[in-house]
Amino acid sequence: MGKKFVAKTGNETMAEAMRQINPDVVAAYPITPATEIVQIFAQFVADGVVNTEFVATESEHSAMSACIGAAAAGARVMTSTSSQGLALMWEMLYIAAGLRLPIVMPEVNRTLSSPINIHCDHSDTMGARDVGWIQIFSENVQEAYDNLIQAVVIAEEAKLPIMVTTDGFIISHGMESMEMIPDKEVTDFIGEYKPAYSVLDVDNPFTVGAIDFTDYYFEHKRAQIEAMSEAKKIIPQVQQRFGERFGRKYAAIEEYRLSDAEVAILVLGSTAGTAKVVIDELREKGHPVGMLKLRVFRPFPFEEIVRALSSVKVLAVLDRSDGVAGIGGPVFSEVRSAMYELDIRPRIVNYVYGLGGRNIDLALIQSVFTDLEKIAKTGKAEKMVSYLGVRE
Amino acid sequence: MKIKHEAIWRELPIAGLIPEGGTAQEYKTGDWRSRRPIWDKEKCKSCLFCWVYCPDSSVLIQDKKMIGIDYDHCKGCGICSQICPPKIGAISMVDEG
Ligand code: SF4
Ligand code: SF4
Fold first, then answer.
1. Is B79 in the pocket of ligand 1 (CB under 6 A)?
2. How close does chain A come to B18, measured CA to CA in Å?
3. Exposed, middle or buried: residue A106 (CB in 10 Å: 0-12, 13-18, 19+)?
4. What is the interface pTM, i.e. ipTM, of the complex?
C-alpha cells in the first residue's frame, strides 16, 4: 500500500492522534494556542467516534486533578494545555508524577505572562522541567504526531506522565503534509492499558496519596527518580519498535551533519527545521557546521549529548526561554554541565532567542554560525550569553 | 502486603501506596503530645462523653465502660478534660516531662 499523506495543522494532528488513541478519560480546559486540540477532540466525543468520557472542567488545576483521579482509577487519560494553563496545573503536575500516573498531554509551547503574550517560546514547559514528567519536543507536525503515539507506550511502560510539545502557532497552527498511521495499527501499537493500580479494585483496597513524613518521603522520591532514569532505557526501545513498524526512526537526540562538524548548535523544536536549511547552505560553501536536536528533554539524555558533541570545537546552545537567573537559558546550563564530563570539551556559549514569539529566521541562525567560527578561530568568546534577535 | 519497618526505597510499593487498610493504628502519633490527659478511674462515671468527642479515637472502652487512654495516639488536645462533666472532673491535663 502506498503512503497516504494528508495536510494537517499541528493541533488537528494531535486531536486525530487522540482519536486514534481513544483514551478512557479526557479532562481539559481551553487555552490558546492549544484550544483546538481538545475542541476538535470534543467533537469526536460528541459524534461518538471515541468512547472517551469527556470532563469539561472550570480550570486547568481542576483538569489535571480530574485526570489524576481518573488515572488512579485505572483509566487511560489524556489532556492538553499551554502556557498559563500549564502554570495553573503546577501543583497537580507534581502529584501526577509522584503517584506514577501515565497521563499523556500534548502541550503547545507558549510564553508566560507578564507581559501577556500568546506566542511561542519554551518558558512554560521549561518552567515545568523539574515536575517529574517526561518531556518530548517536536520539530514538525509529523514528528509531533509520531511522538504522541509513542508517548502513550512510553508513559505506560515508565509509569510516568508525559508531555509532548509543539511550538505554539509555528507547529500548532501551521499546516503541513503528514502521514497518518491507520487507526487499527495505532490501536495495535499502543496495546491494551494495564494500570499499575486502580482504586476501583475493591478486592485489593489500598490508600493512595497518604501523608509521608521524614521517615519515608525520601525513599518514595528516590524510587520516583529511579523511574525517570529507567525511562532512559524505555524511550529508545519504544522509538525502535515504532521505527520498525512505521518506518520513521527516532531517538532522544537527532544529529544533523554533526559527525565532522567543528562548530555546532543545539536546538529544540521547530527551530531545528530552519537550522537544517542554514546548515545545508553553509555546508555547500564548505563550512564544517552541524546541529544536535534535543528531542527528549526529560529524562535529560546527557550521555547521548556528550557522545555526540565530544569532537565539536565550539557549540552554541539555543534556548527559547531564559532562566531569569543571570546565566542564560535552562538548556544551556544543563548541556554545559553535561559536557563537563569531558577532559577536552567544546567552548559553549548560549543564545536566548524567540521570546514571546520573536521570529527566528535563516539570517539569525547564520549569524550564530558566523560568531561560532570566529570563536573557533580566535579562541575567545566575547559573551557567554547573547540575546538573539532583540533590539539592542 | 506488609511494608517492612524502615524498608529501603526499592522495597516500597509504587507511588507511596499503602496496600492494606486500617494502618493508621500502627502509626504512633502520641509522641507529638506536649500535655497528657490523666484519667481518674475512681471519679469516672463512664458517661463516654470523652469517647464521643476525642478527635483521635484515643479513649479506650470495653463493655461500654471507659478503661483508659491510648497514649500511643492521644495528641493531648485536652478536649476530653473539657468535655468531662465539671462535677465529675475525671480527666486532668498535666505537662509532659
Ligand atoms: S487529650 Fe485529646 S486526643 Fe487525648 S484522649 Fe483527650 S481528647 Fe483524645
Ligand atoms: S467524660 Fe469523664 S466521666 Fe465521662 S467517660 Fe470520660 S472521663 Fe469518664
1. yes
2. 5
3. buried
4. 0.88
